[in-house]
Amino acid sequence: MKSSKEKMIAGEIYRAMGRELFDERQYAKEQLHIFNNLAPSKIKARNQLLKKLFGRTTNLFFIEPPFRCDYGYNIFLGDNFYANFNLTILDCAPVTIGANVLIGPNVSLFTAGHPVHPETRAAGWEFAKPINIADNVWIGGHTVVNPGVSIGKNAVIGSGSVVTKDIPANVVAAGNPCRVIRPIDERDKQYYYKGERMPNLEE
Fold it and tell me: Looking at the annotation, which residues are catalytic?
């Protein structure tokens, strides 16, 4: 018979009341208490702590404190990852993030969900579905990404979005619920903000 942890990671309905999962959440909270209270200059110490907590990191990542997660071991970071203040990752299922991903402040990635029916929910049942964020994605501040969502390569998610469905590659998307607004094209190489031109980067 599967344990609650095995069911959780497999995306099956489970109860999170067992001792194993409780102890793992407590361990993550203790480690993040240390992380969030280290002096700003202690960058190496903070990163070493997350390297031990997360399922995968590289040598180049930066997460601004405060940061919160459930377990840590279900978080898999690609190279050159940056997250601004108040990132929350409920990593009951795997959260896989590609290379060169930027995340704005107050972003939440939720793999965890609960049944809609009140009796089932009150009985303690829950589920978790993985989140996948591909290379070169930028997620604007105050965005929520819901369980089971994938965001395609190079996509930009506008601030304040609630992402309930998959977003394809190479688009700008925003809103609640989040929808594709337009493709990213060659014009975006020339202009960076409301008609303001990019400088000549070779100068």
Answer: 114
200: pLDDT strictly greater than 90:
no
Spatial CB neighbours of 49, under 8 Å, sequence gap ≥ 6 = 31, 34, 35
Where do we find the tokens 């993550």? 28
Reported residue count of the chain is 203
Residue 1 is predicted with a pLDDT of 83
**Residue 21: phi, psi to the nearest 5?**
-70, -35
Task: Considering only CA atoms, give the Rg of the chain.
Answer: 18
pLDDT class of 202 with cuts at 50, 70, 90: low
Which sign does the torsion angle of CA 12, 27, 144, 123 carry? positive
Q: Where are the domains of the chain?
A: 4-197
The residue among 102, 114, 70 whose CA lies nearest residue 88 is 70
**Which CATH superfamily does the domain covering 4-197 fall into?**
Hexapeptide repeat proteins (2.160.10.10)
Long-range pairs for 144-151 at CB < 8 Å and ≥24 separation? 144/107, 144/108, 144/110, 145/107, 145/108, 145/109, 145/110, 146/110, 146/113, 147/93, 147/110, 147/111, 147/112, 147/113, 148/111
